[in-house]
Design goal:
6 helices, alpha+beta, 7-stranded mixed sheet, globular
Length: 180
């Protein structure tokens, strides 16, 4: 992506309407499988399989290697061990292709959690987290979900500012674990 296109994407995100989580507490989270990468290694991520191990934190982000998405990836990477200790699986998802996410998973996620590719927007649309930029491009909006082992949304947080996504989802996972 060129520097101008990246700046346009960031500018477009800033001008787009405010984020709102379409999935509500108690909604059944759409099941999916997607190509993902962690540390540059590709694999198929299955929500159903991950939920067998405990809650899943699924966070959507607009575009790899942009300022906000890089900051959010760094924050999730720093907290990855805390999510694991709380019994949760962490995964990010964007409309980027798997090749881009190979690099992003290593460089920005520090190989601490996977990121999944949804270039056809199938999963992003099923979670109703699309964001149409002024350029007309459609990407994922910045929305984070905690999905309980029963497959229902236990927490949803939508904010284009990446600052509170890690803190809020980790608190929701810990609260969910206390209810067990």
């Amino acid at each position: 992506m060129t520097r101008i296109a990246t700046l346009a994407l960031l500018f477009g995100c800033a001008l787009a309407a405010s984020a709102s989580a379409a999935m509500k507490l108690g909604d059944k989270a759409p099941d999916f499988t997607a190509q993902a990468a962690v540390g540059g290694d590709e694999f198929t991520f299955s929500l159903a399989n991950a939920l067998k191990k405990g809650p899943v934190v699924l966070y959507f982000f607009p575009k790899a290697f942009t300022k906000g998405c890089t900051a959010e990836a760094h924050a999730f990477a720093e907290a990855a061990a805390s999510f694991t200790a709380a019994g949760a699986t962490l995964i990010g998802m964007s409309a980027d292709d798997i090749g881009t996410l190979h690099k992003f998973s290593t460089q920005e996620c520090s190989a601490k959690f996977p990121v999944a590719a949804d270039p056809d927007l199938k999963v992003i649309r099923s979670y109703d987290t699309t964001l149409t930029l002024q350029s007309g491009a459609t990407v994922a909006d910045r929305v984070s979900y905690v999905i309980a082992p029963d497959g229902k949304v236990a927490y949803a947080y939508a904010d284009r500012n990446p600052d509170k996504h890690v803190e809020n989802t980790l608190a929701a996972v810990k609260e969910l674990q206390l209810k067990k």
